[in-house]
Design a protein that fits this description.
This protein is an alpha/beta fold. Helix content is 16%, strand content 30%. The protein has three helices and 24 strands. Strands 9-12-15-18-21-23-24 form a seven-stranded mixed sheet, with no helix packed on it. Strands 3-4-2-1-5-6 form a six-stranded mixed sheet, with helices on both faces. The longest helix has 15 residues. 39% of the residues are buried.
């Protein structure tokens, strides 16, 4: 038996799980595969008709093969959980939908979640555990690091570099630049929802607005 675990049973986990079930139904292993949610300190044992296991219960489950993905937006939490599961020998798997588009020339790291109507275009290179939420878009020749999150409707145009743990809010647009001088979004930067990014953003900075500028928190 194969066991597929989605870590997180919040809103995003409940959106992702039907995609996993769809993937299993169209595979040759559909009769020998089961899906579960995996939640730390869970208060519920059943969510949307599926079992909820603790990480320890998932690790000790007798299934011959176990796979996982992490449907949690907080990137550092995602990294911590992924590292713990991999250390236990659990294999990451990528979640896609029949309604998502991934070009054959795209290079996507393990553990990505590509939601319906998201597109990963030509010659883009993406790191581990990337989240491309509904209707988000990665254009040609983009380079995206590990544990990056795109909220719904993000438009990342061509020749953009995004470093690890960056978060891009819903409806944001990152302007295309050139291969010689790409726009660079630094590690841990946050792009606010609806922002229009026309130049590079330093690591750790939050930008908002059109054109995007540093957030004044005062």
């Amino acid at each position: 038996m194969k066991l597929y675990g989605i870590v997180g049973a919040g809103g995003y986990g409940r959106e992702v799980m039907p995609l996993v079930q769809e993937m299993i139904l169209v595979s040759s292993f559909s009769t020998a595969a089961h899906c579960v949610f995996v939640v730390e300190n869970a208060k519920e044992k059943i969510v949307n008709g599926l079992p909820v296991l603790s990480p320890e219960e998932f690790f000790s489950h007798p299934a011959q093969e176990k796979f996982f993905n992490v449907a949690i937006a907080a990137s550092h939490v995602r990294e911590r959980i992924a590292s713990a599961f991999i250390a236990q020998g659990i294999v990451p798997f990528t979640v896609t939908s029949s309604q998502s588009v991934v070009y054959r020339t795209a290079d996507i790291g393990e553990g990505a979640i590509i939601n319906p109507f998201a597109t990963i275009s030509a010659n883009s290179k993406i790191g581990k555990f990337f989240h491309a939420n509904f209707y988000s878009y990665v254009a040609h020749d983009c380079v995206i690091g590990h544990y990056v999150t795109f909220a719904p409707g993000v438009k990342c145009c061509g020749n953009v570099v995004i470093d690890d743990h960056a978060y891009v809010g819903a409806g944001a647009v990152i302007k295309q630049n050139t291969a010689e001088k790409p726009i660079v979004i630094g590690a841990g930067a946050v792009i606010g929802m609806g922002a229009i990014v026309t130049k590079s953003v330093p690591a750790g900075m939050t930008v908002v607005g059109n054109p995007a500028r540093p957030l004044n928190k005062h």
